[in-house]
Write a structure and sequence with these properties.
Metal Binding Protein, Guanine Nucleotide Exchange Factor, Chain A, about 25% strand, six-stranded antiparallel beta sheet, alpha+beta, three-stranded antiparallel beta sheet, disordered N terminus, single chain
Amino acid sequence: MRLPLLSRRRLIAMSAATAAALPFVSACGASPAEAAKSYPKGKSNAEWKKLLTREQYYVLREAGTERAFTSPLNKEHRKGTFVCAACDNRLYASATKYDSGTGWPSFWQAIDKGAVGTSTDFLLGYPRTEVHCADCGGHLGHIFGDGPQPTGKRHCINGVALKFVPA
């Protein structure tokens, strides 16, 4: 009996399906309580639900996205610091904020190297760089390579995940 040959098209389709499934398989490893403990300001989902608004919980704890052009922080141009809405970790300086035209507050770099963390997000079927608060693990948004100099990066951040502290 002869085995059927794999066509290039079938091989590519199988590889893509496997790659798309990997993040979901690996995401099942740790419970939310275990994941929360891995951050200095981690809490259980029940504790976060008590502290955050429904919109904040959706974005910060469920990796949601707020609607574009809805955040008042888009128009925030005063000097100050943008902090995590969940844990008050200092994330972005107003000096690095710019208008990207995307509808979300955008920054070309974090306030320091330890303020945010990154991971790879496959939610849309292709890899994106997710950015999260280094202290509580809250989802902030994504980092793209189409920002201004000197970094060339665009930290596209959900406004509901931030609070602004004037200087």
